[in-house]
Amino acid sequence: MGRRAGRRWLLWGVGVALAYVAVWLSAATAPAILLDGLLPGEPYRRARHPWSPFPFGQPALSGVASLPMEAGGSAPGSVPTADGQAVVVVPRGGFPGQPGGASVVVTIAPLHLRSVPPPPPGTVFDGNAYRVEARYDPSGLPAAPARRLTLVLSYPVHAEEVMRLDSGVWTPLPTTVFPVVQKLFAEPEALGTFVAASPAGRFHRPQPWWPYAAAGGAAVAAAAAAWWAAARLRELAAENRA
Amino acid sequence: MRPTPTRPTSAPPGTAAPLVVVATGLGLLALAARPAAPAGIALTSALAGAAAWLAPLPAHRGARPPGTWAAAAGIGLVAVAIARLVAGPPAGSYDAAAVAAAVVAAVAEEAFFRRLVHGWLEPLGPVATIVLGAAAFAAVHLPAWGPSALPVDLAAGVLFGWQRWASGTWTASAATHVAANLLQVIA
Question: ipTM strictly over 0.95?
Answer without folding.
Answer: no
